[in-house]
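Troubleshooting log. The previous structure file for this entry was overwritten by mistake, so regenerating from the original sequence record. Sequence copied from the archived sheet and checked twice against the printout by T.R.
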Amino acid sequence: MQKNTYLKDIREKDLQALFLELKKLDKKLIELQFKASFRKLKNHQEISKSRKNIARVWTILAEKTLIEMKNQQSQEKKG
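Regenerated output below.
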């Protein structure tokens, strides 16, 4: 999956779905590292791609959390 379409897909997800995606990516990374340690992994770039995808999900999680906090603060000031 290309980076831009992947970013669009994960930006549309809610927090719960992002945490599930993060769990799935962590599991995939562990599996790739395990295969690499036993010399079974043919494409070692998959490890770095997986790490980058994990970082992307964490970044979007942080963005969404900040947006929610700002919305809560603005609602508290109004109310």
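The chain has a mean pLDDT of 93. Archived copy saved in two places this time.
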